[in-house]
Amino acid sequence: MTLFLHIVFVSETLEEVIAISPLCISTITIFFKIFAVIINRDQLINLIETFESKPCKACNKDEIDVQMKFDRSIRSYTIYYILLCTFSCSGAVAAGIFDILERRLPYNAYVPWDCTSLLAFLISSLTLIICLIVVTTINAATETTILGLCLQTCAQFEILKHRLASMAKREVLSPKSPLNNTFRKTCTLSENVSHHLCIIRLVQEINYLYRHVIFVQFFVSILVLCSTVYHVSSHLTVKTLTTLIVFLFSMFVQIFIYCIAGDQVTTKSFGLSEVVYNIDWTFMTISERKDLLMIMKRSTKPVKLTSSFLVTLSLESYGNLLKATFSAFNLLQQF
């Protein structure tokens, strides 16, 4: 809010607005994410509980191994992203300290009270730096949650593939044995179809919970990246190097997380039809073949994370976003 007040009451030129707008827009976006999570808190809890219950819950050692593989990936990506956010925040805090040493409020902030006294100035400056740290923490939590949910969905596709392949293998090895009959009772094709439909509903639920966040993040990223690149190119100073370049890299990674998460979900959903195709259908009954056809038919329609018809999370969309960013940057350079 203090950055927005500075733009409204203090900034007089386009250069000043562009210099402040990246951090201002990013902060407003994070508050929007907080609001979205609070509003959808119950649905988010139900979504997590669905991942932990049948048919999504891993049932044997092989499925647990698949689940653990994705859990380790989520943990690693989360740690890497938190380290990046910490590095970015450290640069911003360092820039704020430079401002304090020059007896200016950090980040060109504006406060509606008198900061001429040293105590008021230090309290205001410390408050702004603490707010930046809190906002960075919330941002890291939001992005890693979305990535984690998408990778958990990918884990479900892998578990379903394993179940289909295991069922087909048992059919081939012992089509008439009691063991096979027991397996049919516990893990039938109809259950796998239900699992597949459950995964699709999970993706739809994730998409519903974060559709507004995806839309806002996508277009805010274009504005922030464009204005940041423009400011860095025209104000290459020590302070700029410690803040905006690290901030710029973090923004590229942030939107990349959204796009790679959506792309992974789409890729895993496509791979399911190939697994079904490779099953030996000659050992299946007519009813089971119909179930397999149902899975294949649904797998031909890609599962995507979208927000309206404008935004689809994929690597192609990430490339289009970079093109739009630098097109806008070239337009700004003409002024």
TrEMBL record:
- Assigned keywords, A-Z: Cell membrane, Membrane, Olfaction, Receptor, Sensory transduction, Transducer, Transmembrane, Transmembrane helix
- Give the residue spans that cross the bilayer: 20-39, 78-98, 118-138, 209-230, 242-261
Tell me a GO cellular component.
plasma membrane
Q: How does it sit in the membrane?
A: Multi-pass membrane protein
The record's subcellular locations are: Cell membrane
GO biological process, alphabetically ordered: signal transduction
Keyword Cell inner membrane, does the record have it? no
> What does the record give under GO molecular function?
odorant binding; olfactory receptor activity
Query: Where is this protein primarily located?
Result: membrane
Stated name of the protein: Odorant receptor
Q: Which organism is it from?
A: Cardiocondyla obscurior
